[in-house]
Amino acid sequence: MGLVAALAAGLVVAVSPRQRATAQDAPAVTVQKAHAGSAAPALKGRIVLLTVGSDSGAPKFGRGGAVERGRADALQLVIVDPAKRRGSVLSFPRDSYVPIPGHGTNKINAAMAFGGPQLLVATFERLTGLTIDYYVLTSFDGLTDIVNKVGGVQVDVDMNLRDHFAGAFLDKGRQRLDGGQALAYARARKTLPGGDFDRSRHQGQLLLGGLGTFQRQVAEDPAKVMTWLGVLRDEVKTDLPFPELLRLALVANTVPPANIRNVPVPGAAGSAGGASVVRLQPGAYALFGRIRAGRLS
Amino acid sequence: MGLVAWRGAMQTSSRNKVIVPVPSSSRRRRAGIAVVLAALVLAAGCTSGGGSGAAGQAPASTAGPAAPAGPLEVKLVATAKVPPGGPNARRAAQQATPGLQRFLDRYLSAAYVDAAGGEAGWDGLLRLFDTPVRASARKQLDALSLGAAATTVSAVRPDRASARAVVLYGGKRPEAATVRLAFDGTADTAQGGGQVHLRSVLQLLATGEGWRIAAFDSRTGPVK
Q: The pTM is what?
């Protein structure tokens, strides 16, 4: 009994305010000065991604079939130089009339329907002379779900839009688009003065808007990286191995959207076999040459 | 990445949160430690006539021999993001927790506890980083660990180590995680004792060899 009382008394002494004050009042040694640091993966060389929006595999929009066997109606080449923190988004009109390996010359959006993403990648590599590292593919459903699941994306809408065909009713200016609005902005074409060229530029704006939204969210909460990766995992098809996807996401967080040019590939409206097509202009091939030479800006 | 958002992020909602209980063996160990502390206090009181030396918890400024280092134990609160049709989120978080705790233990041991004296070097710590970020980590050791101060420190005793993790599952396995890590310790130097602190956001990648740090945003030194 006495021992218990003594132990209890000892504990009281150990935590008494007087004892704590003694320890706190004594001068402490500064062991380490303040240091701060951060780093993302240092990836070597240029990264080239082909992002594709398919017109198939979207049950919510009444689009059946497999997403990777549809027509590729949104086509962007995303080129990033991680070391320089610069990049370009080349937006291709879907009606670009180009050679498709093994299938003669046709609209570029038909390549995926002919031979899946692999043939589409081969078509782009032959057209541009660039080696495409990975493709990322989604559908109408996928795009709307991605945008809704991340809480919308901030986009600089560059014109007033009243497009009944695509359901796009947007005023010019910076705004947050939900999934349906983002899809409508990506699809609107018939009422736009530049038609397919304006549309492909808008698709590039959506990509850059998504990048800016990602960076803002991650700056507020770093765990948002996991949110975005989870959404992409669920909503896109890609040949990117997960470790590379994570590293790219971490690199993407360091590249200011202002350092990425959204460049519509130069082309002119024409026709082939009675169908309206876009014929790429010499400026397009000059652009590919500059990109191959590493000039992204 | 935002250490500026640290406080807010550390106070996230409790939805889907899994608080990992302290293992019962640890509780027993702590109870044992408390009894030993009490006995030491009693003994000190007997031998010094009720002097002011508190035992067990070494004052920050004492320059005497270091007290035995307490066990490093990272208190981890984890949540999981699982794919549709994947495992239950709560169970997934529980499943990922031991591996993450072991990793963070290894990190803090290499960065602080085992780094004291500066003889261990930093290779063990740097091996915990994914290859594409390792060179950057090597250049920023002062922000990730005791760094250059290691040679002046004879011992580091952990006071508090806590972490919050969001774990991303692919299928049935963790693939990546974001971890907010906080560590406070007491370091002994020839000039006396002082506090060491670490506040880090670590982006982790699950590899065949365990977790690796793919990116970081880290701060050491006095806590503001």
A: 0.81
